[in-house]
Amino acid sequence: MTDRDSRSLRRDRAKLVLAGIAVAGIGAAVTTAAWTDDVWFSAEAEAATFDLQGRVEPDGAWLDEGIDSTDSTVDGEDVVIEIPSETFVGLVPGSSVDVELGLLNAGTSDIDLAAPVAQELLGAIFTGTDPATVTIGALGATTLAPDETTTFTVTVSTSDTWPETYINTSGTFSVLVVGTAS
């Protein structure tokens, strides 16, 4: 074998060795990439239900009336829970008539309650020099957990000197209780 053949043989061997190293390197990389693993998680999300209901105590049915009423609305307007008409009838000087109203959290989230407010006092009985007054008692609880209830009292009263100008007069009022999700 000549020097030239010997060099050519060495060159061919070097090429084979380099090719082998390259293949071994690629093989090692492929083998490493084959070692993978995954973990996946999945869940559903759902908002709580929010449902403040009311009733005239002690025996009234729980009613879902108001802004998000599911019972009944008239042309999208709020529907109110009617306090029986005979409750505040027959007022005379020195009268004080109470009615107890109840609230129920029929939802799945806590409800923070604002203090009940008497509003829309309309009619002759609530105007003039010595009108009848509407007083709202404190709530028994200001936060209701799901399925909890609380009550408060509404009182209509007249002064001992309620003048004769109120004979045969009438009026209306509303009581508003606002609950918010907590």
Brief write-up:
With 182 residues, the chain is of the alpha+beta class. The chain is built from 1 helix and 9 strands; from the N terminus they run H-E-E-E-E-E-E-E-E-E.
The profile of the biggest β sheet is: 4 strands, antiparallel
Beta-strand percentage range: 25-35%
From the alpha carbons, calculate the radius of gyration and give it in angstroms: 40 Å
Widest β-sheet, arrangement of strands: 1-2-7-5
Averaged pLDDT: 85
Count of distinct strands: 9
Our count of helices gives 1
Rough shape? rod-shaped
How would you describe what is shown here?
The protein is of the alpha+beta class and 182 residues long. Helices cover 17% and strands 26% of the residues. The protein has one helix and nine strands. The protein has one helix spanning 3-33, and strands spanning 52-56, 96-105, 111-113, 117-122, 133-136, 143-144, 149-157, 172-176, 179-181. The strands form three sheets. It has a four-stranded antiparallel β-sheet with strand order 1-2-7-5, with no helix packed on it. The longest helix has 31 residues, at 3-33. The termini are far apart. The model has no long low-confidence stretch (mean pLDDT 85).
